[in-house]
Amino acid sequence: MCDTFVALPSHTATGNLIFGKNSDREPNEAQAIVRIPAQILDNKQVRCTYINIPQVESTYEIIVSKPFQMWGAEMGINEKGLVIGNEAVFTKVKFNKKNEGLTGMDLLRLALERADSAERAIELITNLLAEYGQDACGGYENRNFYYHNSFIIADKQTAWVLETAGKEWAAQQVKGFRSISNGLTIENDYDLISPQAINWAKKQGWLKTGEDFSFRKAYSDSLMTYMSSCKIRQQHTQNTLQSHNQQLNVQAAIKILQSHNLPAQAFRPAQASSASVCMHATGLLNPSQTTGSMIVENRIDQPATVWLTGTSMPCLSVFKPFFLGGKSILLDQFLAPGVQADDSLWWQAEKLHRLICQDYQKYKSLIINELNDLQTHIFQQATALINQNAELEKLDLLSEESLMAHFESLKIWFKTLHSTPPPKKSWNPFYQRWLKYYDQKAKIWEE
After folding, report:
1. pTM of this structure
2. pLDDT digits (tens, 9 = 90+) for 100-140
3. What is the C-alpha radius of gyration for the chain, rounded to an integer number of angstroms?
4. Which of 2, 48, 230, 357 is catalytic?
5. What are the angstrom distances between the C-alpha of 63 and each of 113, 308, 331?
6. Are 101 and 134 in contact (CB under 8 A)?
7. How far lies 59's CA from each of 8, 16, 38, 56, 111, in Å?
8. Is 2 a catalytic residue?
9. What is the rounded distance in angstroms from the CA atom of residue 168 to the CA atom of residue 186?
10. CATH 3.40.50.1820 given to domain 2-329
11. Beta strand 75-78 pairing with 159-165
């Protein structure tokens, strides 16, 4: 499960395009922030998640947030200002389940490495779909989790929604602002569509004679789409974007990614559901957790600021700024998590977050003021540097300092919470059992 949104420059307070995404994956599927430099390549093939495809002569620099074990990525940006996030969508098109295609994450990374605009990315992704399809498992431990993909694809001034079902697809240019979740949304208002989408739907009996064609109606799996609660989340993000009335900024975008299905004062992770944009896993009917978050402010004449958590649960996270062209070596030191709890930023934050989830309101109250102060300080520094047209070296130094500050704060906050009286006995034994199961698998409390 995921949620992605974009606001064009005409709808933001700064006149810069703003993009946001929560990546919802399995609870122990740690997510890494990775910077991959531009490259000149002599390889004839590139190995994606399951298959090899022809390599190109050169690729662009990219910053991506990706599950640690994947080749592809959930979200990212390249040096040309192209930014993409993907969503799982559930359609009537069946899978062979032979893993002979590309995952949505493969398609996203390939587009970032090879495309210099939103329009070019759509062309590239749809050509890859036509040739290779997407018969590829997207799960981590759940090896039966197959899905098709939708994307928001944006550059510095324009954005598109691209929705797919097997090798068929429809695309719609964004006007003002747009959000997507885990369901198809494009009806007959597409701007581009695959050549066979309508005829193939007719052949399958999904479009009746005389009926107006709707990509959503023809291709959507209604049961799985309903179970994902995507309509609730997509309506929330869309309404929130609308409410900002051309005044959206990064702070407001982060608030969207931090929102839950219950009022802030009443929220408990054990009561969370798949209707939360900031998702907390609670069991078999709600197995996904937000494992990474990204906001991009994309400027025309200045560097884009890429705000990434590198941690789960944005409601408990600090968004840190990154910039294309940087040389920081701290990404490898701080942001390379493994299969089980380790010293990486993701797992150290996860240790704190899971402790907070045992008594969310009480434990969060002990650290939230300091967390907000740190976030405000980082915002102020980033804004000042951008306003000064600071050199890349200074921007890169801010990335390093922000990472180090968050990492050190995690240690302090954990000690604070660990020294407080333990929470009262939970009235949610099934949730506690679920949490304990994932804690044990990750060996999160083993020293």
Report:
1. 0.96
2. 999 999 999 999 999 999 999 999 999 999 999 999 999 99
3. 21
4. 2
5. 10, 10, 11
6. yes
7. 26, 26, 5, 7, 10
8. yes
9. 13
10. no
11. unpaired
